[in-house]
Amino acid sequence: MGRAKKVVLAYSGGVDTSVCIPYLKEEWGVQEVITLAADLGQGDELEPIRQKALDSGASESLVVDAKAAFIRDYAFPAIQANALYENRYPLSTALARPLIAKLLVDAAAEYGADAVAHGCTGKGNDQVRFDVAIAALNPNLKVLAPAREWGMSREETIAYGERFGIPAPVKKSSPYSIDRNLLGRSIEAGPLEDPWNEPLEEIYLMTRAVEDTPNSPEYVEIGFEQGIPVSLDGQRLEPVELVSQLNERVGRHGVGRIDMIENRLVGIKSREIYEAPALLVLIDAHRDLESLTLTADVTQYKRGVEDTYSRLVYNGLWYSPLKAALDAFIAQTQARVSGTVRVKLFKGTAKVVGRRSSVSLYAPDLATYGAEDQFDHKAAEGFIYVWGLPTRVWAEKLRQG
């Protein structure tokens, strides 16, 4: 089709992205395909993936370790925003997309490519996230999506790849579609497409079944500085290590599973299973610390901002004017969100059981019902009179008819 001469392709090593390489060259006249695999903590062996891209016809195969940037620049801001799409999904997969888009755009600039490409289909959210993020970062860069246009079944895709020396999967492929990174796993398709079917235990990897969890509770103390997680049990940790350790500790107690019917941006309802142990606990702990350190009006107003923020990220608008404006608001609120939250992990639950902060707004001498009580009870009568005055006037007028 002659759409581009040099293309940077987001590459995972799977069937679709591997077939994209010869397809772009043979069907669309692309002269050179450079692949980019982002290491976001998905646990894959990246050297075989790098080599597979070269074997599939890529002129260069890039592997970028982006784990630190992923946690620092994408996950931690989302934790500050208590970001939960539809009040449940912590955006563990969605948060990776703007970062991958940025890596593609940066590579295209470095290698002089006139287009970038991805292997997304036409039904999912990721195509929107990639296309819109890339357009925001470089509106002059072409975005190619072969899998959205080639119209091949999976069997036909495998056969097409075999024509160009790409081996078929050696084992029967799983019925599930799975995406993984350091923040969690998303599992869909196969038996899960019937929302009545209970997920089989075999789909989980990061979290134990409740019956296999320890019989004694475990406590973890999470330290925050200006809304950013910085320590576990008093030990300061780098972002990647903190999330990795917390994933293991939380998952061991069966915490972090989500089973939900999700409203995709393209208008389809989808049954999704997520595992996000550390991320869910960090958001819960962070929100609790905010209740201790933010004023009531800021806390309550921020809830609406969080909902908007979550929808923006889910819908692929990480790089957008409204998101940037919300970032500024959230950053302002986090200046005093520092302290420690104590979480009890036990049999599939994570409960906040303690919190403390040097900038806490909690005043024991006002809250207590003991002898130390400093609250002026006499002031309450006048306050109630003024507060209830509009209701009293309304009631009187109503009685008068």
How would you portray this structure in words?
- The chain has three domains: 134 residues, Rossmann fold; 180 residues, Alpha-Beta Complex (Argininosuccinate synthetase, chain A, domain 2), CATH 3.90.1260; 36 residues.
- Helix content is 42%, strand content 20%.
- The protein is built from 13 helices and 14 strands.
- The strands form three sheets. It has a five-stranded parallel sheet with strand order 3-2-1-4-5, with helices on both faces. A five-stranded antiparallel sheet has the order 10-9-8-13-14.
- The protein is elongated.
- It comes from Parathermosynechococcus lividus PCC 6715.
- InterPro entries: Arginosuc_syn_C, Arginosuc_syn_N, Arginosuc_synth, Arginosuc_synth_CS, Arginosuc_synth_type_1_subfam, AS_cat/multimer_dom_body, Rossmann-like_a/b/a_fold.
